[in-house]
Design brief:
By secondary structure, the protein is mostly helical. 70% of the residues lie in helices and 0% in strands. The chain is elongated and about 60 Å long.
Length: 124
């Protein structure tokens, strides 16, 4: 399944398990992309200084897709009453903060705040 299909499946998923699996696949693709970012061809030292790392060939932002899928998965977890899972999923978006659009970070913070306020109201 392509990354785009994985992302699309996540965004339309109404089943928490299905969305979680898709979210994990996207997160794994992000980690793989990060691991390959420093790839250097095995060249003699005298030639290495003339070679730059190859540019990324992905036409999509895998981190943004992971963040969007995570927000959707967190919402599904909330709908099923899986508060701890929702909190963890929203927090995972915050870990990408420096590498994604502020929109996703703001949304994750908003959901975490609402989640905490809801828990505080339930305790009173």
């Amino acid at each position: 399944m392509s990354l785009w299909e994985t992302y699309t499946d996540c965004k339309v998923a109404s089943d928490l398990h299905q969305a979680s699996v898709r979210m994990e696949k996207l997160a794994a693709a992000t980690r793989l992309q990060d691991a390959n970012a420093g790839f250097v061809l095995p060249l003699p030292t005298t030639l290495e200084r003339f070679v730059t790392s190859p540019p990324s060939r992905l036409a999509v932002d895998v981190r943004a897709m992971t963040a969007a899928c995570s927000l959707h998965t967190g919402q599904l977890a909330l709908n099923e009453g899986r508060i701890d899972m929702a909190r963890d999923v929203f927090a995972s978006v915050l870990k990408l903060e420096q590498e994604i659009s502020p929109y996703y970070v703001t949304q994750a913070q908003k959901f975490l705040t609402e989640l905490e306020q809801g828990l505080d109201l339930a305790r009173k």
